[in-house]
Amino acid sequence: MCQRIDEYQDYAKRIHILGAEIDRLRLENKAFDEDARRIRLKFADGLSHEKRQEDFNFLTVLMGVEIDSLRNRIDQREVTID
């Protein structure tokens, strides 16, 4: 019974950490949205299609790297909790 309580407490800790990480990611997502709006306005001023595509590809890769970094942070936190 004590082991089950410990498991539930560990589970609750993980949920709390993931909840905090989700909140942080939401804030970052809002910042990315604002950046995207600024970029759209910048592109609306007449930049070439190739330049827009190149910048979009760069941002996509950058966001992918950021997501991988965040996943690694979550994995590291789970290891330290165990």
Describe this structure as you would to a colleague.
The protein has 82 residues and is mainly α. The protein has one domain. It has two helices and no strands. The protein is elongated and about 65 Å long. The mean pLDDT is 86.
How helix-rich are the residues, as a percent range? Answer: over 70%
Summarize model confidence as the mean pLDDT: 86
Quote the beta fraction. Answer: under 5%
What is the string of SSEs from the N terminus onward? HH
Shape: elongated
Main sheet properties: none
Structural class: mainly alpha
Task: Give me the count of strands.
Answer: 0
Provide tags for this entry.
mainly alpha, 0% strand
Write the layout of secondary structure elements.
Elements: H1 2-44, H2 49-81
Helix pairs in contact: 1-2
What's the short story on this structure?
The protein has 82 residues and is mainly α.
